[in-house]
Amino acid sequence: MTHRAAGELTEQYGGRYVRSVSRVVSLLVVGEEGWPLEDDGQTSQKLLHASKLIADGAELRIISESEWLHLTGLNEQRDDIQRAYTPAMLSQLLTVPVSMIRRWARIGLIRPVRRICRLPYFDYREVSSAQRLASLLDEGVRPAVLEASLTQLSQTLAGTDRSLSQLNLLVQDEKVVIRDQHGVVNPRTGQRLLDFDTQLQIRVHDEVADDHSTGPQDVDGEDGSMPASISFAEASLRIGDRDMKEWTAGEWFNEGCRLAEEGACESAVNAFRNSLSLLGAEWNSLRNANLLTLVDGMPDPAEVNFNLADSLYRAGHTDAAIERYHCAIEFAPDFIEAWTQLGCLHFESGQIENAEDSFQTAIAIHAGNPDALLHYAQLLDSAGRVEEALEYWREYLRHDFRGPWADHARERLQDVETVTT
Is 226 helix (H, G, I), strand (E, B) or coil? Predict the structure, then answer.
């Protein structure tokens, strides 16, 4: 919420809202959208002043927005802050492309809090934090300044350890690698460094990013996904040196993802097609060996087709994209994101019955799928089936209270109710 709205709530509940920190202040509330960082990357002056007053003995508490909402009994709004969002919802909330959300997830910058039928849900606070850090870095703020500020914040605010890890990944995006139980992988491209020198000294940054030792670290984590920075020049065989004819289906898939994230959709289409071509041969090899499960490095055919469909659509090939979404669903019938995207493309193409079938299928698979609820409500509205649309606008608002889509849903409900009255 805005400062003005927070001030009005404070007055409503018997408190007094002030704009500056002093000894008469009893609570400093820290918003949870991003971190309290100035445009130059420095820690908020209000927070620094409050910390000094506390050190000098002032009866002042620093609390999070969630804690403050709980104290005022506004738990519904508190739950909204802690709500998880789909990539499409985050794209609208933060005004960043869905491809950027997917890229951040692919390099480990953000992590889904859960997946439902392949659809990832992310913690809004973690994503907005990543966006804030990325924005400050793009504006020229030095990483050392941000690291110092986040370290300073960690003394008063919980959760900054994750942001330090995010900062590390953002800064080292070109050279960071992930070591797992199968070897070393470049998260930027998703490709593995093959024939890697196992005696090579690797400096590992742990999840908290507070270990500044320069010696090699143990990487025996359970999930084996601890990030480690390394100079690619030290690798005995670099991916850039390999002939593309030697690439695997997995390498072509990750190359397609990288190209799609950079907006090179036609090139991404070719990469995904190469992946599918090789994947067919690899599946045949597994079938001949009586092994019908994915092996390490082999991409999921449903995911490859889904990404291919997305790139085809963005390249202007709608009909081909529709066919590929069908292919993704054939491999994974409960792929709700594919069903929703299929519905959107049918709707855009004027195939209303097909679109309705797709949205209804997506909702039947997962009734709380906000993306499908929203698009189905829009379809019903456009078809003049306003009363039916109301049910889905209301259901959508059960899962999303903020952002432009939620505002639109509330406007439609208000418009219909006004006309009815």
Answer: strand
